[in-house]
Amino acid sequence: MTNSISSGATVLNIGDILATLIMLGVMALPFILVIFFYKSYKKNANRAAKRSSAEKQEILNLQKQIDELNERISKIENGNTIDTNQRR
Length: 88
Hints:
Blueprint: H1 14-77
C-alpha cells in the first residue's frame, strides 16, 4: 500500500486564496469609492437646496420689513402721523 498524494490541485493553498481576495478587493475599491462620492454629492446637494430655500424665504421676509419701514418713513416725511395701533 502506497500513500499517494494528489498533484496538489485539490489542496487549498492559503497564499493563492489570500492573493485572490486582495486582488478582488483592489478591483472593487474604485467602485466603492464612486458610490461613496456619489452619495456624498447627493447629500450635499440636498442640503444646499434646503439652505437656499431657507435663505430665499428670509430674503422675502426682510424685503417685506424694508417695504413696511419705507412706507412708514414716507408717511412721516409727508406729515402724516402713524397711529400707535399700527405698530407691532
